[in-house]
Design a protein that fits this description.
single chain; 434 residues; Rossmann fold; GMP Synthetase, Chain A, domain 3; six-stranded mixed β-sheet; four-stranded antiparallel β-sheet
Length: 434
Amino acid sequence: MINFTASTNPEFLPKEEIRTLQDRLLREHLLYACSASPFYRSLFALNSIDPSVVTLENLKDIPLTDRTVLGERNEDFLAVPMSMIVDIVLSSGTTGIPTSVMYSENDLQRLAYNEEISFRSCGIVPEDIALLTCTVDRCFIAGLAYFSGIRRLGAAAIRNGLASPESHLEIIKRLQPTVLIGVPTFLLKLAKYLVSQGIDPAVTAVRKLVCIGEPIRNAGLDFLRAGEELEKIWGADVYSTYASSETITSFCECTAKAGGHLHPELAIVEVVNEAGEPLPIGETGEVVVTPLAIEGMPLVRFRTGDISFLIDEPCSCGRNSMRLGPILGRKKQMMKVKGTTVYPESIYSVLDAIPCVSEYFLTASSDYDLSDILKIHVAVNDSSCTQSMIVDRLQAILRVTPEVIITSEETVNRWRNAGNSRKPVRFIDDRKEI
């Protein structure tokens, strides 16, 4: 297993040395998975795969794994005795039954190291005080991961979790955190609550926001509206992260804010097309992760269902590791509208750029002509903002012509908060398989 020490971060190594390191760690990972995981022992045998000769070049020959298989054969992925498992996370399964992801002590140490180097990359230092506004219970990993990383880095963590804005305000006034970690929509809600109480968020001690769970940038790496509003209202640096509980891996932007840096010693990341074939750097597809040095439930070529792209251009921060672009959508949320493929996040990006659009949500339903029916419910803050203007903008940029319904902000917010989700919903998928 890897010696998890931030001082030996290989992201600054020359690219060839990074590849050599990853080839070695990949073989170690595959040999371990083959020997300890019943699932991979069977998979490798059925496909005549010799893990000792697999490299980055021929990794693509190993079959992909996804959430469905992980759920159906959950116990077969376990590579250690249950006596070595110290934490069990439940992720949403494809059948409605949560899938268990089991972590050993080594996995939790790896997780803490991952978050430590991610936080260091965006400039968090031991002198910082971080307020966690995300859950640390209910079998989710996010809060535990961020707490562990902050603790390992040497900074102070305030685990206030999914508390009310009133509760967070009292902490901001009394303990003066310098970093907020949370979902963008909640951090914006919190800022607006501060304003309602006569407090300017920009004059608090907060200097950094680490955004989780929702995208804040578009494919061009520019801020979506949420990112712009957060930066303006808090007067703070805003950073985006990407994480996956199954792969026990996350990637955070550095101070250059040009994509989340991949950690060569922790993961190998591919982007594949709909057929599962690797795509060239820069092309958009599904993110596939092979997490390295996992002990409890090792995975190989795991399909995350997230849509993004890889960036290999030099980064001004000096790191030579590749970067992952913003998440542009979920594979299962992909829509085909009159032959054009579109993701919800692409629509969000267009709507966020229209000043007179204040709030919105999307609905998708099925049609028997194999085209999805897309409706966009929009609240506007200017009477001159018309349906045709919004439709024209969407058609010009995305080449889709959805039905746009102008409604009240109260109606939009009621729909967005109607379900059991931990955060407001902007996409309601009512499609049925035909």
